[in-house]
Design a protein that fits this description.
The protein contains two helices and seven strands, in the order E-E-E-H-E-E-E-E-H. The protein is mostly beta strands and 110 residues long. The chain has one domain. The protein has a seven-stranded mixed beta sheet with strand order 3-2-1-4-5-6-7. Strand 1 and strand 2 form a beta hairpin. The longest helix is centred in the middle third of the chain and has 11 residues. The protein is globular, with a radius of gyration of 13 Å.
């Protein structure tokens, strides 16, 4: 199953490493939910989950970045490769504006 990330909440800055919570939908079954960054990283790494963002320019897959220091975080791919300059799409995705920075209910499972 591939989920579409629709909104994010940032904490402590504006970079991808500051994404702390993500909202998503599953187009295959119309399920939607939200999870912490750590939960989605674990879902992608441990359960083979797939995520992407989509805008007027198309669909871009999301992968896990493993920095030398600090926790793992999510970033989009550019030209099929996960790299430092490739993450703009995850920060510009569509979704309800009120979801981007609000507090949320307890996370649901993907």
């Amino acid at each position: 199953m591939a989920i579409r990330i629709t909104a994010v909440r940032l904490q402590g800055g504006n970079g991808h490493e500051h994404i702390v919570h993500l909202w998503w939908t599953n187009p295959a079954n119309s399920k939607s939910g939200d999870n912490s960054r750590a939960q989605l990283v674990a879902w992608i790494e441990d359960e083979g989950g797939k995520a992407y963002v989509e805008d007027t320019h198309g669909r871009v897959d999301v992968g896990v970045v493993k920095p030398t220091h600090g926790p793992k975080y999510l970033r989009t791919y550019a030209d099929g490769r996960l790299r430092a300059g490739s993450g703009a799409a995850i920060m510009m995705m569509s979704g309800p504006p009120h979801c981007r920075y609000r507090s949320c209910a307890p996370p649901s499972r993907v």
